[in-house]
Amino acid sequence: MLTLSDFDFDLPEELIALRPAVPRSASRLLVSDSGALHDSTVAALDRWLREGDLLVFNNTKVIPSRLFGTRTRATTHGAGVSKIEATMVERLSSDTWRALARPMKRLAVGDVVMFGDLRAEVLAKVDGQVDLRFSASGAALDESFLRLGQMPLPPYIASKRPADARDMVDYQTVFAKEPGAVAAPTASLHFDEALLAGLAEAGVKRTDVTLHVGAGTFLPVKTEVIAEHKMHSEWGAVSEGAAAEITRTLARGGRVIPVGTTALRIIETAATGQGKIGAWSGDTDIFITPGYDFKVTSALMTNFHLPKSTLLMLVAALIGLDRTRDIYKHAITHKYRFFSYGDSSLLIP
């Protein structure tokens, strides 16, 4: 029985990347293939791929959904004003989001918070979060977030420096298309147009899927027995075209390589059998741990993950726990950069 401690390791704090490599493809790439480890770079990715391989990218677009505003409330001593910080974590409808708010104790149901010219009413307080209904909806609300918000950087970066204008570009993939994520599919941050063009020229194919990454991706696992952990839910979709491309690739003997754990989770959710996948959309809470039978995933490109995280468990499911430990020991010894803005790995079972 696997426990949380099986996925723990010590990481020197200086290996946590606070900024990405420039250019994007200059990041290092640790390749695990045929039982051997190779130190490479993302720019040399075509060296490790074959003609006919298929890269699967998550085309979600991060919304700059960290907002700063004020709540004004009439009191017996006059108007009471409080500064409020809110980070959106889940879209509930076209005009309503569930959010993490600070300080929570300053908010009550019915309160109105002004984020610049954007009005939000507190509809409910649920499990340490608030439901906010905004005065704009749909694309207009997304535009307001873009104008007023900051990128919702992961806690291990945000605790060390504030988000700035550079993050509006750095924390977004070059092919981001479908707005809805509050965290980036970080393995895809390594790709730029030049790298994508070079891979295409080498005969490596690509297709896109969507999984709107939620803040739940950073939630710690609190149960010692990992099978008891309840996975967060995220919305995703696999189009008919993407499903057909994945099916064709596998039928021809090519490899399907999701770029990032989010792309992997959505194609495994949509899989209908060994080597089979169909169009799909909806909420997924798939939790992939050692023992999982992969249906359509041949290999994985992914960054280096937090200790005791569900993402690390997914990696161990694909390549084995002992192999995962060897890879992370090598990465730490050779000073690879970790987490969202860090280096990457190509894991071939």
Q: Which segments are poorly predicted (pLDDT under 50) over 5 or more consecutive residues?
A: none
The CATH class of the largest domain, by name, is Alpha Beta
- The CATH topology label of the largest domain is QueA-like
Number of helices: 8
Question: What is the name of the CATH architecture of the largest domain?
Answer: 3-Layer(aba) Sandwich
State mean pLDDT (0 to 100 scale): 94
Can you tell me about this structure?
- The structure is a single chain.
- The protein is an alpha+beta fold.
- It has two domains: 4-62 and 168-347, 3-Layer(aba) Sandwich (QueA-like), CATH 3.40.1780; 66-148, Thrombin, subunit H (Beta Barrel), CATH 2.40.10.
- The protein is built from eight helices and 19 strands.
- It has helices spanning 138-148, 155-158, 165-170, 193-201, 240-251, 261-270, 310-319, 321-333, and strands at residues 28-33, 36-41, 54-58, 60-62, 66-75, 78-91, 96-102, 112-115, 118-126, 129-134, 178-181, 205-211, 234-238, 256-258, 271-273, 276-277, 280-284, 300-303, 344-347.
- It has a six-stranded antiparallel barrel with strand order 5-6-7-10-9-8. The chain has a five-stranded mixed β-sheet with strand order 14-3-12-13-17, covered by helices on one side.
- Strand 6 and strand 7 form a beta hairpin.
Task: Throw out a few tags for this protein.
alpha+beta, 5-stranded mixed sheet, QueA-like, Thrombin, subunit H, 349 residues, globular, 2 domains, single chain, 21% helix, 19 strands, 8 helices
Tell me briefly what this model is:
The chain contains eight helices and 19 strands.
